[in-house]
Write a structure and sequence with these properties.
Blueprint lengths: L1 H19 L2 E2 L2 E2 L3 H25 L8 H24 L1 H16 L4 H22 L16
Length: 147
């Protein structure tokens, strides 16, 4: 996780530098604050990395097989969400993702799974597309409009 934080922060800092991270004509350039925020986040990531490397001291990352299986399940469903978003769009993909994740990984009961799988994406659709007028990603195959 620390390496991911450092990579993200480096990306932010590089892009902010390209935009202009210097002090120009008595005021900060457009990338000044994002650049330094990225530097600080990278520093925090480095601190986390060093602390965890010292604390590991030869210990196994996962205590047993269950931890590894959990990480693989979460990673696989997240990757599936990305592929589905590309293929069928964010709205339908989020319904399928929540359904699979809540039922088969979270082991929630059917009424909760059905309610959350429908209410969360539909609420998100209403807030982003209707209220804020921000378009959500559409897929290659456009499924029937949900709203």
């Amino acid at each position: 996780m620390a390496l991911g934080i450092i990579a993200f922060a480096a990306s932010v800092s590089v892009q902010a530098y390209q935009v202009g991270s210097r002090w120009v004509e008595g005021q900060a350039g457009p990338g000044f604050f994002p650049f330094w925020l990225g530097v600080l986040v990278a520093l925090c990531g480095a601190i986390i990395l060093v602390r965890e490397a010292r604390a590991a001291n030869g210990k196994a990352f996962f205590h047993d097989h269950t931890g590894l299986v959990s990480v693989v399940k979460v990673t696989a469903t997240a990757a599936g969400m990305l592929v589905l978003t590309y293929l069928i769009g964010f709205r339908a993909a989020s319904i399928i993702y929540l359904f699979v994740y809540l039922r088969f990984i979270g082991k929630h009961r059917w009424p909760a799974v059905i309610a959350m799988s429908l209410l969360i994406p539909l609420t998100g659709y209403y807030v982003f597309e209707r209220v804020l007028q921000v378009g959500l990603p559409r897929g290659i195959v456009e499924l029937p409009y949900l709203g």
